Amino acid sequence: MSRRPVDTGDPDRLYTITGGRSEAPDDLDLVSLIVSECEPARGMQSEHVRILKLCRRPAAVVEIAAELGLPVAVVRILVGDLLAMEKVTARHPRAAPAVAELPESSLLLEVLDGLRNL
Amino acid sequence: MDSVTFEPSARTPLSAVAETGLKIVVVGGFGVGKTTLVRSVSEIRPLNTEEVMTEAGVGIDRTAGLPDKSTTTVAFDFGRISLSERTVLYLFGAPGQERFWFLWDRLFSGTLGAVVLVDTRRMSDCWYAIDRLEHHNTPFLVAVNRFEGDTNAFPLSEIRQALALPDHVPLIDCDARVRASGKNVLITLADHLYELAMARETP
Ligand SMILES: Nc1nc2c(ncn2[C@@H]2O[C@H](COP(=O)(O)OP(=O)(O)OP(=O)(O)O)[C@@H](O)[C@H]2O)c(=O)[nH]1
Ligand SMILES: [Mg+2]
């Protein structure tokens, strides 16, 4: 089955991973695509290392959460760290220049065409 | 203590130039076929994750010795469809129960639209979802997942009445297990969304 256990039953563990912070960038969407801008370095937090490896090719915030087995809220904080350190960049759903300039109907037509061509 | 189990993940990476992530959400009652629908159209094996919300409503807080009392966890799964090199559609299967809607804005704002899956044997399971989607102004369609045990075989017109669905909301049959049928659900929704956008853009 697709379901697999995700350990969130232990708030202390999440607290440790995030250093007790609860603030994450507001604009970090579930489907913001995260891309590594550098290789992991020695001494980095293991979750940061895993995100950097995962995002050598773009990966959505929600994919990172599933791969790391961590709640989305925790991944937002971790990705926020990496953004602040400029070790990753984020391609936001609405910020993509190709999309922002198009009327909504053009985007939807692209979706429709993409689905029809599956 | 740490009970996380990692399956070997057969990850299919996105195109290096992928830049736009889009969202469509599949909601419905327990066991209505949400995961099955996501799986039948997804290019990856559906992945599962969850969001935890504290009483305060943001992030993970240290909860003063009462961790269970003040956090809500909602699990959801998702699949992915690369529409083009640059555009990726994520399809989320999410429960329609009450506590889930507390997370809607946080997780699914900016969603293109929603699919409400219905099992005619438990039609009332989707009332709440329809009500919330209307409340959030999220465009949606209703897809009736026909199980073999669907002996009642309600025609769509009766289902529309039973759900008090306005005429402008598309209502279709589907078989969530069949890729072509799942694809048809998404195309019908995208077509509906396109029509809505065109109507908005041409006064
Ligand atoms: N006969 C039949 N069985 C189906 C159909 N769609 C789903 N099922 C089965 O119904 C069961 C529930 O389907 P799921 O896709 O897991 O339903 P779900 O909505 O994700 O369920 P929860 O996430 O537990 O709420 C599974 O055993 C499916 O194989 C269908 O169209 N016909
Ligand atoms: Mg499911």
UniProtKB/TrEMBL annotation, chain A:
Residues 1-20 are annotated as: Disordered. It comes from the Bacteria. Residues 1-13 have a biased composition (Basic and acidic residues). InterPro entries: DUF742. This is DUF742 domain-containing protein. The lineage of its organism: Bacteria, Bacillati, Actinomycetota, Actinomycetes, Kitasatosporales.
From TrEMBL, chain B:
GO terms for molecular function: GTP binding; hydrolase activity. SUPFAM superfamilies: P-loop containing nucleoside triphosphate hydrolases. This is ATP/GTP-binding protein. Keywords: GTP-binding, Hydrolase, Nucleotide-binding. Belongs to the GPN-loop GTPase family.
